[in-house]
């Protein structure tokens, strides 16, 4: 039996690795399509791009792992069934449910590893990935000088260059960091790169300057953030708007200007320490839930005090009292649609006095309580999600073994199609459950575990069908012949036969 289990694991390894790699590549390319516009034109170094790619992979791996398990199981058992190896095993007295012991053991190992991965690696990767995107968003695109175009991106200074000469005779000149590709020479060793330069400075206050130079060169400063513009053979014209009769003119053979913050340097100083729900470990989630529950308890006590201060004949007091008593006060933030006052119901007096009334303060307390309960539900969803998705690997083994045996002649295409259909239904159920839980309509626990429960029942049913062999479920080249109503039709025929004999 050990040899059989090793053989099944060996047959499963290849399809699992192939499906895992293929699905990871597909989701990675999809992620890059959305990521490319955020990094285009930023002239990021290869180390930053590599870090961005690596940090985007853990989220993909967490999603792909259960999918790869199902695809690998269906493909491997489909091949065993197509080669009549499953039939030979059954002839030796080995039932179908014994064949899944080895895959179930491997799935348990993957599940434990995935839970650890989702708790330790994934939150930290998501947090660093978010901060890296924030830093990239703050990075300004590298400035380019273009022929015949006034560049006014220097904070009150405009630069016009009539002709640009580079080593490759490009028609524009990029200012980038020394470790990047497009870079002007650090020292103007040869002939000047820029010709026919006109620079204007128009500060809000003070004299206006116009600099005209025959030629010039540009290089990055040692800090790689500023650019040094060296001008040759020109003049500086200066005039004060308040004293236009005073005009100064200065000739120079060499003059240098510093253009600040044009190097497009990558700065990691914009990171945030705040973590969203998907950036929290299990311990962080529990701690944050405890904090929100303390806030909810405080709001509940405040609502009780405000409710006691309402007049006895207030029409809304009954709704509030009923809500506060239900489920220990967990739902009292959901009665707002019934107690919001209409404009015609506002009492006489100033609006300010009404806004400060106990009833209005009670309504505001319920609003805050509703938001608090939604935050708790959202955190609980993330908590149970870290367990439910890895547990899906076990469910998909139970589901995939009978599907693989029954899809004996379907091939890889049919196996992938079945897997994609299962995943589509699974993720629809998971996302729908998350939405309902965030709206406080169902428990976060059942929101995450209901899809697993549904597919667990389906998997057991398919396994019973395969073991008993009393269902018609065949998947041929041209399509699927699925007839779960055949036993019911047989039962109806028997009843008709008994009625005819009577």
TrEMBL record:
Membrane-traversing stretches: 7-28, 48-78, 99-117, 387-406, 413-433, 445-465
Subcellular location: Cell membrane
Main localization, broad class: membrane
Biological process according to GO: lipopolysaccharide transport
InterPro entries, per the entry: LptG/LptF_permease
GO CC list: ATP-binding cassette (ABC) transporter complex
Keyword Disulfide bond: no
Topology of the protein relative to the lipid bilayer: Multi-pass membrane protein
Keywords of this entry: Cell membrane, Membrane, Transmembrane, Transmembrane helix
Pfam entry (one): LptF_LptG
Protein name: Lipopolysaccharide export system permease protein LptF
